[in-house]
Amino acid sequence: MSLTRSFPSALFLLASAFSAAQSAGWAVYNGGLDGDHYSRLTQVNRANVRQLRQAWRYDTGEIGQMQTNPLVIGRTLYGYTPTQKVIALDAATGMLKWTFDSGIIGLQPARGLAYWTGDRKSDRPRIFAGVMNYLYCLDAATGHVVTSFGEQGRVDLRKDLGRPFETQSIALTTPGIIYRELIIVGGRNPETHPAPPGYIRAYDIRTGQLRWTFHTIPLPGETGYETWPKDAWQFAGAANNWAGMSIDAKRGILYAPTGSAVMDFYGGDRVGDDLYADTLLALDAATGKRIWHFQGVHHDLWDRDFSSPPALFTIMRNCRRVDALAQTTKQGYIYVFNRVTGEPLFPIHEQPYPASTVPGEITSPTQPKPDLPEPFARQRLTEDMLTTRTPEAHAWAVKTFRSFRSNGQFQPFSQDNQTIVFPGYDGGGEWGGPALDPTTDVLYVNSNEMAWTGGLVPAGAVHSPGEFVYRSQCAVCHGVDRAGSPPSFPSIVDVTQQLGSDEITAVIRNGRGRMPAFPNVDDKGIQSLLRYLSGQKEVQGIEEPPSPDAYIFTGYRKFLDPDGYPAFKPPWGTLNAIDLKTGKYLWKIPLGEYPELAQQGLKNTGSENYGGPIVTAGGLLFVGATIHDRKFHAFDARTGKLLWQTTLPFAGMATPSTYMIDGRQYVVIVSTGGRDPKSPVGGAYIAFALP
User: Fold this and answer.
1) Is residue 597 part of a domain?
2) Residue 12 or 477, more confident
């Protein structure tokens, strides 16, 4: 294989055909290799969108969270079920063509698949699917495993990481991306020690052989090694690309955003800036060599992952065309770069922030912030922003808020008070990512505006093996008091009374939803944990086992009032349109509402939302995402005016797709629910079209 980034004519013709097919299909996750969520289809437009009706519905027969952005190639739609079976449907009727069941009950988020057409006469198109820690290769026509790929049709992503693979936890929740004859993947890693390094890897698309690796935790002699403690590559974890990637196919440049290093909220064992955590990487897609990078958070202590792939576009600057990209963030910043050189198109300045008071923690003295665009989420929670929904809720919010520290972005956690993180751990911008209209250079992004809190407590002595397992693996999400922050992080105070030991064991082994698998916890550790959770006395003691973390995160805590609503004034979720030529907002509207509050007259509050928008040449912005009202919406992309909406059977927490078959345009979205305990949960694909 050539190691240059030249684009051979045959591949250029393939890419051109791919682009033409894209106008009628949805052949790549997020709409294209450029990640812009854009479709050139115009049949459904501003004038007729009100006539949209359900064209077909396919029920998976399963219940659980799906976050899949379906692929549509030719007449076939490819997607997942809630347990990560791969399905192929007739995209015009919703009839099932085939199902692939790996035999693994996968309960991790599954956001999409990758499709390869082949470039030889002998090639048959392939589907690449992540199921837990495996990358499967399937015949696209039949769903049969291609046994010549990897080990009998699959690659175990726990391998090739330089550590004993049996105890590594990694899941391919966002699909890999294809370049030439490579499938390039990242993966989801745990938020706690131990976690594997978040290396980015490319595999031969025919054989499954590993072709290159980029070390996101640098090895000795590699650039960035000095930003970690000595030999950190042997023990540090994560800094992983879980959010997906984009590619400039013509130049062969891969853009891979990464997340934080573990432990997410205390970095005493990873003093330094920690390259390449929280970094937008531009890599040679053929070789994995670094071209340029930008680190969005130095020494991250707030779980500020880059949470979605960047959108690629071309813009006029100083009377010349500049190939650019836009990267959204959890904190609501948008970074805009020349995608070839890494030069910012709007100035970025390092802002000073306070030092940590926690022993052993050394925060970065500065963090980067772009001058433009202005953040698409509010940046600091103040007392005048607290809820006035009822006098009682307001009084509670004021009293509680005064016990917090709330000073805006990048305030280090303390041992004394809870610190407000606003926007919260789920953004700002989340994994759904933005849509970008390449004809107008307008970016559309939905945003969460939810306040969370966090703090640290000394790890201290533990009194049993079960308590050690809990505090080192579980407390980061469920809290040191096991109370969690429902519904996102459920309380497990009485979990052994609600679930049997076999079910708890299965969740620990395989993960579920936001919870990763924990293969590092062996059978003995699980039994000790079960005894601890049930309040049983341990049969053996323990003497302060070694732990890399001197401090433990107190747990994710959402700032909700006693009735379960956000304890501050709306909007609680927004949809934004930003002109990337100027960095100025064109419009901003609330996205979503709480049905019961709307009935009481409190409408258009916005709400938490998951899954991104798509934008079409018909002038429409389609987005589901809202977790409480279960609506699927179509907005006028110019003004933000709502033109059409329908109520889904279950919330549509996924990015939709649009495509055309037999001269008819369809818009399809996954309907699943699962984030709102008051709403139904299921697993269906629902397509809409004009009558």
Assistant:
1) yes
2) 477
